[in-house]
Amino acid sequence: MSEPLSLLINTATVSGVVGLARGTSPVDSELLQLAAASNVVVPSIQRMLERQGCTVPDIERIVVAKGPGTFTGSRVGTSIAKAIAYAAGCLLVSVTTLECVAWTGVASIGRGGGPMPVWTLLDARRHEFYMQQFVWRGGMLVAADEPRCTGHEVLEAVRASGGLAVCAFARSLAPEVGSAGAAGWQFDVYPTCEGIIAASRMGHVEDPLTLEPLYLRSMEELFDKPRNSA
């Protein structure tokens, strides 16, 4: 008997991905670029299902990165996940983009179980970052605080911690990092299927009718001036 089929969706970051997994093993995936995400997600899912000889009713679980991230991308991913989950009657699990990036970064360097914190940083635009700190507990990355939106002061906090910083943006957005400090820095890290699967172990089962994207900013903040202008 084959393992259950999961659909994995992340459109909340500038480099997105959709994938299929059997159990905890990815079997197919397609990368997405933010500018075209709303137009290509459903066709990408259809192509993967066809390649695997499956149909939508075969999907038993959907794992979606609900944000934070781009406003449109977060809405696109959650909306498509909700629609498919409702139509297929399958389990819907949400994870945060920050959790997916953390697991992806840790997996890429084979680090696990260490005493140092793991920080995840996403570009929130307008001189701000979405961030969250994680610690290792029982072989799992566990949130040490709530995700939040903050300014460049977080970069100094990461340097002082001596932990690992996993950043879903280019090094050019954090020029002050340089080579100083004891922290390890990873840049241009975006959720992979493996990272989404790992994050789903701590995910939340959702009702397709009520799941909403995670923004961390109010609508006024999303479309008005930032908290800390530079």
Write the layout of secondary structure elements.
Elements: E1 5-10, E2 15-22, E3 25-33, H1 37-51, E4 59-65, H2 71-88, E5 91-95, H3 97-109, E6 118-125, E7 128-137, E8 140-143, E9 148-150, H4 153-161, E10 164-168, E11 184-186, H5 193-199, E12 204-205, H6 219-223
Parallel strand pairs: 1-4, 4-5, 6-10, 10-11
Antiparallel strand pairs: 1-2, 2-3, 5-12, 6-7, 7-8, 7-9
Helix pairs in contact: 1-2, 3-5
Walkthrough of the structure:
The protein is α/β, with parallel strands linked by helices. It has two domains: 5-96 and 191-217, ATPase, nucleotide binding domain (Nucleotidyltransferase, domain 5); 98-186, Nucleotidyltransferase, domain 5. Helices cover 29% and strands 30% of the residues. It contains six helices and twelve strands. It has a six-stranded mixed sheet with strand order 3-2-1-4-5-12, sandwiched between helices. Strands 6, 7, 8, 9, 10 and 11 form a six-stranded mixed sheet that branches. It is globular. The protein starts with a strand and ends in a 7-residue tail after the last helix.
The CATH class of the largest domain turns out to be Alpha Beta
What would the CATH topology of the largest domain be? Answer: Nucleotidyltransferase, domain 5
Percent helix, as a range, is: 25-40%
Number of strands: 12
Oligomer: single chain
- What is the average of the pLDDT values? 88
CATH architectural label of the largest domain: 2-Layer Sandwich
Number of domains: 2
How many helices? The count is 6
Shape call: globular
How far apart are the termini? 57 Å
Structural class: alpha/beta
Strand content: 25-35%
Radius of gyration: 17 Å
The CATH superfamily label of the largest domain reads ATPase, nucleotide binding domain
Unreliable runs: 226-230
Strand order of the largest sheet: 3-2-1-4-5-12
SSE pattern, N- to C-terminal: EEEHEHEHEEEEHEEHEH
Biggest sheet, in brief?
6 strands, mixed
